[in-house]
Every structure is written in structure tokens, then in C-alpha cells.
Amino acid sequence: MFIGRERELTALNKLYASDKFEFAVIYGRRRVGKTALINEFVRDKKAIYFMGVESNAKQNLDNFSKSILEYGTGFSLETSFSSFQAALEYVFKMAENERIVLAIDEYPYVARSSKSLASTLQLLIDKYKDTSKLMLILCGSSMSFMEDYVLSYKAPLYGRKTAQMKINPFDFEETCRYFPNASSEDKALIYGIVGGTPQYLLQIDDKLSIEENIKNTYLNPTSPLFEETTNLLKQEVREPAIYNAIITAIATGASRMSEISSKVGEDTNVCSIYLKNLLSLGIVQKETPYGEKASRKSIYSVEDNMFRFWYRFVPENNSIIARGADDLAYKRIEPHLSEYMGRVFEEICKQYLWKQLLSGNSPVEFTSLGRWWGNDPKSKSQTEIDIMGEADKNTALFGECKWTNEKVDVGVLDLLVERSKLFHYKNVHYYLFAKSGFTKGCVEKAAEMGNVTLVEYEKMI
Predict the structure, then answer these.
(1) 118 and 233 inside one domain
(2) Angle, nearest 10°, between helix axes 184-194 and 305-313?
(3) pTM for the model
(4) What domain range is 379 assigned to?
(5) What is the pLDDT of residues 58-85, one digit of tens each?
(6) CB 372 within 8 A of CB 421
(7) Which residue pairs, CB below 8 angstroms and at least 24 apart, start in 12-17?
(8) Domain final residue pick, 284, 305, 340
(9) I need a labelling partner for 286 at 20 to 30 A (CA). Which of 7, 74, 445, 447 fits?
């Protein structure tokens, strides 16, 4: 069953409907659902689909030839074009008379094995773009290759694409569609544990408890997810050991560059290079306090939930997991789950606020959202605000998110109001998000103030 990606499918179908030459570039991390998207798009269309393999040019050419000839004849013929240029030219000419989609999946494998392929495509696009009805799709999982050798202004294909799509993991709302049988709380926990990557979501069974799912995936050495972080890093980077150490350092509490460098035992200049790559892969994110430019206050966190959960809990329990003691490993993890979910819930709340804005239901038309942290001169201590968003110099919203089993009391609202006074906005709106609802006192104070929205998690689903 295909779920989500409505916006991407709409964009692809719009390109298809133009009935002229189109060239779309689709890229994103492995397992994120790029191939499923292409297959869904071409399902009812005349299409040649070819997936590159990590081999030499001859094998890729043979496989490509087979895909083309199967389209033309309906049979698998044991013959091959003399070159990629001959094969591609044949397709461009076929598409002069009918709308054809040519999708080359895992393009980096093909391009690495045939160094002249990009230049050949450039030549043929320039030659046939005005006469051919071909819709060309190049898709790749190697983010660095796609960005440097397909999308970069130095790349031969620069300026030829008519669309590009970076495929990201699902957001929380889309993730929930996978699990109709899960409780509301379990849906949030699943999102926190595996994130929104479709291939990882398929490892979760919503008829089982969270405990059973964690045991089946992260605490089971034979599970695909148990080795996933290691395998993905090996495919994407040259020195996985240092990347491994950096992600572990961040997942276990080191957030500033100096702390990460100290934990890893590498110079900050070295760490910054590796962090840059982790940022481009979407594994790590860099944050600065909302409204401030890059500064020494910048912190790093693990952005991908699957990586975050794995590095937070698996390495420290590796020895007992290897001995099959999944009950003991889970017993060590379970007390920390609520604390771990704090940051996940903040992200779910941000996504909720964006949806409110886009549907015209937000009391503040903010331009961005983020966290803020810094010094409170009154208390002379460090403080932070979970969510902050500014509409203009006079208007902003402030939010606090609580993933606890207790109802949120009026003190939380009072503290948020006090922290908001560190800024000087005339018009302020407050949001409180709570897993377990609000006390009567908090509800009454919010109603009295008139500029407060209380959101119970149950109503966000």
C-alpha cells in the first residue's frame, strides 16, 4: 500500500501533463521512499524504468538496454546497445511520437561506472529538448553525488533540469497513517523511535506494544534496524568510525563543538568537517537561539529519530543485547523514554503549528519557528523557550511542550509568560502543549488572559 507523497506526485503529474521534454531530479537518503514514489507515479504510464547497480559500465549498459528493449517489444531480448549514447538516443527518438517516462534510479552507480554519461545526457538533452516528449527522471541516494555532480552549477547537467525534489522522511501526521491500530501515545513513541523513514516504519507492528517493537528491532541483533546506522554510514562516508564517534557524542549529551571535540578526541577543525557532512545527510542538525545569527551559542543535535534512538540506547547496552538479554536491555531503556520523548514532542508541536499557519488558523502569522536559550539577567541563570516564532518586530508566539503523565499546571504558563518578557513584543500569543492535559487552574488562567491556546496531545492527532 502506497501512503503519502501527495505533493510530490502532484508535481510529477503536472510535469507529465505538459507533453513536452521535462527533466526531474529526485534525491534523498536511502530508505526514504524514492523508488516507491517513482513506481507509483509511472504505474499507469508508458515508462522505461532502469535501476543502476554498483558494477562496471558494461553490466549497467546491458541492463539498461534490456529495460529499453522490453518496453519496445514486451520481451526480454539478449542484445545490447553499443553505448549509452546509442541507447539514450534511441529513447529520445521514440519519445518524439509519444509521451514516455524514462526513470534512471540509482543514477550515481551508472554515472560512476561511465564517466562520460553526464556529458552524453547534456548533449542529447540539448539536441532533442525541443522535439522530444520524453520525461526524464534521474534519481539517486548518494546525496553528495547528486548535489555535486547533477545539481551543482559546475555539473554538465546544470541548467537542464525542469524540477528537483529532495525526498525527506514523513512528518508525524503522515507517519500516523501507517499505524491505524496504535494508540495516540504509541504513535508519538513510534515516531520518536524510528522517525518518518518509510523503510523503518515497515519494521514496526502496530498490533504489538512499544516494548515488543523495541525488542524486535533495536534489541535484536538479527533485525534490519540493528545494523542500519552502521550500514548507512558505510555507504555514505569514507571514515565511518569518526562519524560514529561524533554521533554517539551528540546523542549522549554533547551539544557544543568544544564538548563534541573533547568527547571524540579530535581537534574542533576536524570535527567541523565531519559535522558538515552529517548536516548535509540530515542525520545531525545545527541550531542557534531563535533570532540570533550563527554564534558560539550554536548547538548540535541528532535530527534523524532512528539515529537518535539507536545511538542513545544501543551502544551502551550492546554487550547484553549480544547475549540475547533483551528484557534486561529494555528495563534499562524504559525509565529514560519519557525524557527522550521531550525533544520529539517539541518537533511534533512545531509541525502542528506549521499546519495551523498553512490552514489559516494561527493567531500569529510567524515566518519561522525555533528554540531559544540564553541568559536571564533577572535570575542570572540560563533559561530556554521550547518554541518561539516571530511575525514582525511587534508580534510573536511562545510555546512550552510537556510530555509528562501529570497535567500541566498554571505555574508552567506563568513561567512561559515571565520568560517571554526577555523580549519586547507588544503582541504576544502563548501556546501550551501537554501530553496529559491541563489543571483547572491553568485552564481558568488561560481563559482569563485571552491570548493563550492550550493544546492537548490527543487533539493534535
Answers:
(1) no
(2) 80
(3) 0.92
(4) 363-460
(5) 999 999 999 998 886 655 566 789 999 9
(6) no
(7) 12/37, 12/41, 12/163, 13/41, 15/135, 15/162, 15/163, 16/41, 16/45, 16/99, 16/101, 16/135
(8) 340
(9) 7
